[in-house]
Amino acid sequence: MWSRFARLFVIKTKFEAFLVIYGLANGATERGVHYMNQYPGWGGVMLFALCPVAVFMAGARILDSLERERADFCD
After folding, report:
1. Cβ–Cβ under 8 Å, residues 66 and 14
2. Which contacts (CB < 8 Å, 24+ apart) does range 12-20 have?
3. How far is CA 44 from the centre of its chain?
4. In angstroms, rounded to a whole number, what is the distance separating the alpha carbons of residues 27 and 51?
5. Higher pLDDT, 67 or 46
6. Alpha-carbon span 39 to 8, nearest angstrom
7. pTM of this structure
C-alpha cells in the first residue's frame, strides 16, 4: 500500500516536471516579493534575483534526471 502511495510523488513525464517547475517558480517569485518588501533597495533586489536562479538550477536537475532515467531504461 505504501508503494502505491509513494508512486504519486514520482515525476514520470516532462509535463509533470514542468508543472512542478512552474509551482516552484510561483513560490520563488512570491518569496522574492516578500524579500523586496522586507529589504528595500539593492539588497531586496538581489535576493529577489536569486530566488528564480534557484528554480532554474532545480528545474535543470529535474529535467536532466528524467532524461537520464529514460536513457537508462532504453539501454
Report:
1. yes
2. 13/66, 14/63, 14/66, 17/59, 17/62, 17/63, 17/66, 20/62
3. 21
4. 9
5. 46
6. 38
7. 0.79
Q: Which residues touch 59 (CB under 8 Å, ≥6 apart)?
A: 17, 21, 24, 25
Range 1-38 burial, b when 16+ CB lie within 10 A, else e: eeeeeeeeeebeeeeebeeebeebbeebeeebeebbee
Q: Rounded CA gap, 28 and 34, in Å?
A: 10
Q: With beta carbons less than 8 A apart as the criterion, state whether 35 and 47 touch.
A: yes
What CA–CA distance (Å, rounded) separates 62 from 11? Answer: 9
Residue whose grid cell is 505504501: 2
**What is the reported pLDDT for 22?**
96
**Whole-number CA gyration radius for the chain:** 17
For the chain, how long is the longest CA-to-CA vector?
Answer: 53
Report the candidate in 3, 12, 2 with the shortest Cα–Cα distance to residue 69.
Answer: 12
